[in-house]
Amino acid sequence: MPSNSLYGKRKRPFDTFLKVLINTAAAVTVVVLLGIILYILFNGISYISWKFISTAYSETNDALKGILPMIINTMYIVVITLLISAPIGISSAIYLTQYAKQGRLVRAIRFTTEILSGIPSIIFGLFGYTVFCILFRLQTSILAGCLTMTLCILPTIIRTTEESLLSVPSSYKEGAMALGAGKLRVVMGIVLPCAMPGVLTAVILAMGRIVGESAALLFTSGLSYNMPKGFLKQIFSSGRTLTLHLYQTAREATSPDAMHIAFATASVLLILVFLLNRLAGLLSRALRKG
Question: What are the ABC transmembrane type-1 domain coordinates in residue numbering (predicted)?
Answer without folding.
Answer: 71-280
